[in-house]
Amino acid sequence: MVTVATSRGAIFLDRDGVININRADHVKCWSEFEFLPGALDSIRRLTETGLPIFVVTNQAIVNRKLITTEALDDIHKQMIAEINKAGGQITKVYHCPHDTHEKCTCRKPEPGMLLQAAKEFDIDLAESFFIGDAWSDVEAGLTAGARSILVMTGRGPQFVANVLLEYTVRVGAACDLEDAVTLVLSALQGDYIYATPRLRRSFHMALHPQEFLVL
Ligand SMILES: [Mg+2]
Ligand SMILES: [Zn+2]
């Protein structure tokens, strides 16, 4: 019997500010790589969906000569080893080494890395999710045709107004990766929510601190 391969969705994760703590001075070696609380367990839960997971990261520090490609690959090898130990899997890490002025097609918000993964692994981007902490992540996901989720870890709080202003049905928001997992899981069950209950509660408490009642 011949089975026709059908393409499937995937989960794309930005790295800094989503998986690990975003450092203003960049992650230049493994000792500077610090997993965010709950990130490892979240990747395990995403792995359990059966969808392949890709890490998609802008690393202009390569072409700015702050890190070698070998050192960056080494960080990713160690990151994947820790993720595997926790029961998670990463299919591939894509990085863009270019700086803004180089005008490449892979540096987010350009969707190049997602398109590359789609080609290499037969991914249906319309069925995919991109979780990131910067508006350039959201844009890259949308341009590629995926659903984007902005998390409030890392640089996320800077971009929360964009979510409200440029509201589209394919942008969601969550507190962190763990919270984004609940959004992905409910979307996979056909129920797409735009802001997780946890995020709604935090917004509500920030706006109405005097109230005992929360949403
Ligand atoms: Mg980031
Ligand atoms: Zn690039």
- Indicate the percent of residues in helices: 25-40%
Q: Give the bound compounds.
A: magnesium ion, zinc ion
Radius of gyration using CA atoms only: 17 Å
Chain-averaged pLDDT:
92
CATH topology: Rossmann fold
Task: Give the name of the CATH superfamily.
Answer: HAD superfamily/HAD-like
* Overall geometry: globular
The amount of beta strand, in percent, is 5-15%
Tally of distinct domains: 1
- Structure classification: alpha/beta
Q: How many strand elements?
A: 6
Unreliable runs, pLDDT <50, ≥5 residues? Answer: none
| CATH class membership | Alpha Beta
The order of strands across the largest sheet is: 3-2-1-4-5-6
First CA to last CA: what distance? Answer: 53 Å
* H and E string: EHEHEHEHEHEHH
CATH architecture: 3-Layer(aba) Sandwich
Helix segment tally = 7
Let me know the largest β-sheet: 6 strands, parallel
Brief summary:
The chain is an alpha/beta fold. Helix content is 35%, strand content 13%.
Structure, explained:
With 215 residues, this protein is an alpha/beta fold. It has one domain (11-207): HAD superfamily/HAD-like (Rossmann fold), CATH 3.40.50. It is 35% helix and 13% strand. It has seven helices and six strands; from the N terminus they run βαβαβαβαβαβαα. The protein has a six-stranded parallel sheet with strand order 3-2-1-4-5-6, with helices on both faces. Helix 1 (39-47) links the parallel strand 1 and strand 2. Helix 1 packs parallel to helix 6. It is globular. The N and C termini lie far apart (53 Å). Residues 96, 98, 104, 106-107 line the site of zinc ion.
